[in-house]
């Protein structure tokens, strides 16, 4: 999912990467295979209050507002509305524009404190709630409300953020799906070999990465290192598994990536997926007798 950010206030960057992961998980849970885009504005209460008054005639601030671009028939959601999604294709983005979300950052923080969970979980929840609206879900009548809640829970659970089990780690299947969606963002005009990765941390966070090539070929960064560098720079320090996705051949990590993974997670599980296949090996098998921090101790 392409998230078009408009950020009008201070926000912890770790919330942004989590919201990207949640958005990708939402499309996967709904079974949407097309590339989609959503604009997300993060703002102060004054700004959301203004929009609420102007567009909904409600004179107060709120946590999240959604403005869908696709007009779903009653009872139909994005996963069953491929024709409608195709009509919402934005040529420039090469993705279907689902609509706009406005989220109040003060509300994220206040509601997290009120419900006794992390701002991360609240940000993920509000984004998922908004995206469900943009995918055709609603909560006006009981039946609809129930299926919206079920979908929200399914999405949050798939990224280890369900209400019951916030520290639960996501399943291999969900991790592989997040690697597949990270691959969409690959910048690989020279090799044409697009790779996506999803790195699962012991605290439940997932960092996604893609390969980023360069006209000066040697500067290319692989998907695995992109994910690992993102994670380290956001303060993650313990890793459980990494999923790597390519299209036609098994994307076992290259030598450089094995070495970088070994620096931070010598025992990490490595899962690869390509063309409907899945395989797995521990890093210790992929880099036997590796040289690492312990060698210098
Ligand atoms: N690539 C990765 O992203 N991960 C790997 O482990 C193997 C290779 C990328 C680098 C380059 O952009 C393209 O795949 C072809 O080598």
Topology summary:
Elements: E1 2-7, H1 13-30, E2 36-43, H2 45-56, E3 64-68, H3 82-87, E4 89-90, E5 95-104, H4 105-115, H5 119-134, H6 142-158, H7 172-183, E6 196-201, E7 206-210, H8 223-233, E8 239-246, H9 255-264, E9 269-274, E10 277-282, H10 283-286, H11 293-296
Parallel strand pairs: 1-2, 2-5, 8-9
Antiparallel strand pairs: 3-5, 4-5, 6-7, 6-8, 9-10
Bound molecules: tetrahydrodeoxyuridine.
Please, could you describe this protein's structure?
There is one protein chain. The protein is an alpha/beta fold. It has eleven helices and ten strands. The protein has helices at 13-30, 45-56, 82-87, 105-115, 119-134, 142-158, 172-183, 223-233, 255-264, 283-286, 293-296; strands at 2-7, 36-43, 64-68, 89-90, 95-104, 196-201, 206-210, 239-246, 269-274, 277-282. α1 packs across α5 (119-134) and α1 (13-30) packs across α6 (142-158). The longest helix has 18 residues, at 13-30. The relative contact order is 0.11. The mean pLDDT is 94. It binds tetrahydrodeoxyuridine (THU).
